[in-house]
């Protein structure tokens, strides 16, 4: 599963310094104290969280950590769930099976996205001796297009809401605490649903979390839309979307049918440039 051309640029911008002449460590955002320990968690018990100045990721594989640092949170501002689907090439088998407990602390109050993006990049390059680079390869993709009927996504009146300030520490909730206005863009991903208010590009990115190819936004829609999409899928979690076409036991339809029936859009097979992360070097970390 892969992401859009925008993500190619985001990953490239995030990775350039770590691949082609790395900047001095002191010049990059980093944690003050880090701990990396191997762990074996029961199925379904992997996860993580963050608090001001502290990041704790429980039994995450290196593969997931690379996806989070260099694709999902690469820019340090807005999370892109579709980044979990970027193909990871050249990583050893243990990178997808061995879990790690990662605990890190930093001075000040860096945002969650900064800690799980640029700061996690620094941690991985230090503790795992990771060298990773982005590439754009010609691969099968999906094109998100307008359907034959009307678009079934109400537009959001942007005069009644406020944009999130991604340069600040994330605010919990759907409203700005200073003005009381709701945030214009609120994206909620469930195990088999996408809901909230978002642009067409953000919708394409969200859909990319659930399908096995990179999704390209070709709707030419502008503005922010209210979205509610429910579908059946086999498997759970990031990139667990191969074979979601079968209806669920509760009668839910595949994501392809749901996009057409519930949103008035279409998800069609296509082909084009898509981002890939290539691992040139990695080592198992020393435990501490």
Summary keywords:
4-stranded mixed beta sheet, 6 helices, 20% helix, 4-stranded antiparallel beta sheet, 288 residues, disordered N terminus, alpha+beta, globular
Chart the SSEs and their pairings:
Blueprint: H1 5-19, E1 33-39, E2 47-51, E3 54-61, H2 62-72, E4 88-89, E5 99-105, H3 112-116, H4 118-127, E6 131-146, E7 186-189, E8 193-198, H5 200-207, E9 214-217, E10 225-230, H6 255-263, E11 265-281
Parallel strand pairs: 4-11, 6-9
Antiparallel strand pairs: 1-5, 2-3, 3-5, 6-11, 7-8, 8-10
Give an overview of the whole structure.
The chain is an alpha+beta fold. The chain starts with a helix and ends in a 7-residue tail after the last strand. The N terminus is likely disordered. 20% of the residues lie in helices and 28% in strands. Helix 2 packs antiparallel against helix 4.
- What is the helix content? 10-25%
**Major sheet:** 4 strands, antiparallel
Order of helices and strands: HEEEHEEHHEEEHEEHE
Strand order within the widest beta sheet: 1-5-3-2
By DSSP (H or I, 4+ residues per run), the number of helices equals 6
Strand content: 25-35%
Mean pLDDT: 80
The geometry reads as globular
Q: How far is the N terminus from the C terminus? A: 34 Å
Number of strands: 11
Q: Give the low-pLDDT segments.
A: 1-26, 235-249
Structural class: alpha+beta
């Amino acid at each position: 599963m892969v992401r859009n051309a925008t993500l190619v640029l985001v990953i490239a911008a995030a990775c350039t310094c770590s691949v082609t002449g790395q900047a001095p460590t002191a010049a990059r955002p980093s944690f003050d104290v880090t701990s990396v320990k191997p762990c074996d968690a029961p199925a379904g018990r992997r996860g993580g969280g963050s608090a001001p100045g502290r990041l704790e990721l429980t039994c995450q594989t290196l593969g997931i950590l690379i996806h989070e640092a260099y694709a999902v949170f690469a820019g340090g501002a807005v999370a892109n769930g579709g980044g979990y689907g970027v193909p990871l090439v050249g990583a050893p088998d243990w990178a997808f099976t061995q879990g790690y407990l990662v605990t890190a602390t930093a001075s000040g109050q860096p945002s969650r996205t900064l800690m799980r993006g640029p700061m996690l990049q620094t941690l991985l390059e230090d503790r795992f001796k990771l060298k990773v680079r982005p590439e754009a390869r010609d691969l099968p993709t999906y094109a998100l297009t307008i359907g034959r009927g009307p678009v079934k996504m109400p537009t959001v009146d942007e005069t009644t809401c406020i944009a999130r300030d991604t340069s600040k520490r994330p605010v919990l909730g759907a409203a700005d605490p200073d003005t009381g206005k709701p945030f214009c863009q609120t994206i909620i991903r469930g195990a088999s649903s996408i809901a909230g208010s978002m642009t067409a590009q953000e919708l394409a990115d969200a859909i990319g979390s659930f399908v096995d190819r990179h999704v390209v936004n070709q709707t030419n829609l502008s503005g922010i839309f209210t979205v509610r999409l429910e579908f059946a899928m086999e498997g759970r979690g990031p990139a667990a979307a191969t074979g979601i076409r079968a209806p669920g036991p509760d009668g839910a339809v595949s994501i392809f049918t749901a996009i057409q029936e519930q949103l008035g859009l279409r998800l069609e097979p296509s082909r084009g440039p898509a981002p890939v992360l290539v691992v040139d070097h990695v080592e198992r970390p020393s435990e501490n």
